[in-house]
Every structure is written in structure tokens, then in C-alpha cells.
Design goal:
Helix content is 16%, strand content 36%. It is α+β, with helices and mostly antiparallel strands and 286 residues long.
Length: 286
């Protein structure tokens, strides 16, 4: 009789172990699908909360390049990630991206194979880096925290993405570099010359480079509202790069239309009274 009871216990324990080893997948919902809560039913194996990984803005320092070497992020771009409640999102350097993930107490991390992203046109070098970054995300199999750094590892436990904790930014006393400029016809344009437009807000004065000429203006802030006064510029004419003078006019006109500002994890946005984006910025790399 004791032998029979012992056999039953062993069979039950074996069945429990087999069930706990089953793979749990992640499905990306379609437009008409509701998003299911993140998986939390595997104690000791998977969880969706983790203070060492989640709710921190991680800024990418290096990524695994096409030749198999860790490659620094282009100095004029900001790539970041934020993990929160089973969802990952951030800037891929030009476009925004988003997806799903599950994280484990034992260091396991699985990202959905389908990562969504906006479709804004980007300069060729930035686009190549962005495509590589988005292609690496589904290859992640584990995460590892090292002080202020985060390593994402592949199945062979080799690092493919390296991040650092991003510093907190404010509107004033930060050097801003444009990533998108409203062309006055309802479209926000990003080209390889967009980054030439800059801005610095300090002590009620905005100044910077409009693309060809330097400019300055006063500004007032009330809550999240901003009013930029009449701009004064130098009078230089630039024949190159192509289209820079038109871009400069669009930029100065967009600043004049600014009505509100909002700080994002990866930058700054100026919008008009109707909520239309006028200029988007990232912190200028020094």
C-alpha cells in the first residue's frame, strides 16, 4: 500500500514539473483585438514586474552590428527602451516602436517577434541602424543588470544590446536638436538636414541655429503652455545643403505657432493650439 501511494505522488509531481516547463508565447493583438493581461501565472519562473528592469528609461549605448561586433549608437541619434507591465516601447532612433514581452526572475526575457513601429522617413544611416535595432529585439533571450547598465543577451548568452540609465531632462538649459519639423502643410518632415535646426531655452530666451542662420527670440511659459516671440536672425544665404533655406523658414514658422510643450522620455515636442505637432527634438549630443 505504501508503495502505491508513493507511486501516485511521484506521478503527480512529474506532471506538475512537465506543465511548468511548457513554453508560453506572446501574441500581438490586431486592431479589433483586446489586449490580454500580461502573463503572471508562473511563480518562480516568469513575472511582469521587476524594479531592476522595469519603469526605467534605458538609453542604448551599443548594439551588435552586422559584422558581429558591438557598435556604438550614431552620435546624432537617441535609441531607448522602457519596459512596463508586459509592454516595451521607445524611440528606435527615428521612429517610435512598441511590442510585448515577458521577463523572468531567473533573468529570462522574451520579446514578441512582431515589433510595431511608426513609418516616418529617416536619413539612410539612421534607417539602417534602426532596422538593425528592431531586428535584434526578437533575438533577446535574457537580461542582466550591471549597476547603471542593462545588457540584453541572445540564446547563447552573448550581449547584443547594451543600455545605460537615461538622465532626466528639462526644457531649459538643455541643448535641443530637431528630429521633425512641420512643413506648414500639415506634415512633419525628417530628413538628413533636420538635425541642423537646434534650440536652447534659458532665462526666457530661446536661441539656436535655424539650419543656415542663427536666431534668437523671447519666450514665456505658463504651465505647459509656451509662447515664443518674434525671432531675430542673421542674414546669411546658404546654397547648400539643398533645400536648407526652405527648411529654415518652416522651422521658424513652426516655432511661432508653438502653443504647448511636452517633455517625452526621449525628447521634447512643441504643438500648436489644435494639438498638431510643430517641432520634435532630442537632446543634442555633445
Amino acid at each position: 500500500m505504501k508503495t502505491l501511494v508513493l507511486s501516485i505522488i511521484i506521478v503527480c509531481l512529474s506532471g506538475f514539473a512537465a506543465a511548468s516547463d511548457r513554453h508560453v508565447g506572446i501574441d500581438i493583438p490586431g486592431e479589433n483585438d483586446s489586449v490580454e493581461p500580461a502573463i503572471t501565472s508562473r511563480p518562480g519562473v516568469l513575472k511582469t514586474t521587476g524594479p531592476e528592469l522595469e519603469n526605467i528609461r534605458w538609453q542604448l549605448d551599443q548594439y551588435l552590428g552586422d559584422l558581429g561586433e558591438m557598435t556604438p549608437v550614431l552620435p546624432e541619434t537617441t535609441v531607448d527602451a522602457r519596459f512596463s507591465q508586459g509592454e516595451i516601447g521607445g524611440s528606435a532612433g527615428c521612429n517610435r516602436y512598441f511590442g510585448r514581452y515577458t521577463a523572468g526572475q531567473d533573468g529570462r526575457l522574451t520579446l514578441a517577434s512582431e515589433i510595431g513601429a511608426t513609418q516616418m522617413a529617416c536619413p539612410p544611416a539612421v534607417a539602417r541602424q534602426e532596422q538593425r535595432y528592431l531586428a535584434l529585439l526578437p533575438l533577446v533571450a535574457a537580461w542582466q543588470r550591471q549597476d547603471e547598465s542593462l545588457l540584453l543577451l541572445d540564446n547563447a548568452h552573448q550581449p547584443i544590446l547594451k543600455y545605460a540609465v537615461a538622465r532626466t531632462i528639462g526644457l531649459e538649459d538643455s541643448a535641443w536638436q530637431a528630429t521633425g519639423i512641420n512643413n506648414g502643410r500639415g506634415g512633419v518632415v525628417s530628413t538628413n538636414t533636420t538635425q541642423l535646426a537646434t534650440a536652447l531655452f534659458a532665462n526666457g530666451k530661446i536661441s539656436g541655429n535655424a539650419g543656415c542662420n542663427h536666431f534668437a527670440a523671447s519666450y514665456e511659459i505658463k504651465g505647459n503652455q509656451i509662447k515664443i516671440g518674434r525671432t531675430m536672425t542673421t542674414r546669411k544665404h546658404c546654397a547648400e545643403p539643398d533645400g536648407i533655406m526652405a527648411q529654415e523658414q518652416h522651422y521658424l514658422q513652426a516655432l511661432a505657432r508653438a502653443h504647448t510643450y511636452s517633455l517625452k522620455p526621449d525628447g521634447l515636442e512643441l504643438r500648436d493650439e489644435n494639438g498638431s505637432l510643430q517641432v520634435s527634438y532630442r537632446v543634442q549630443k555633445r
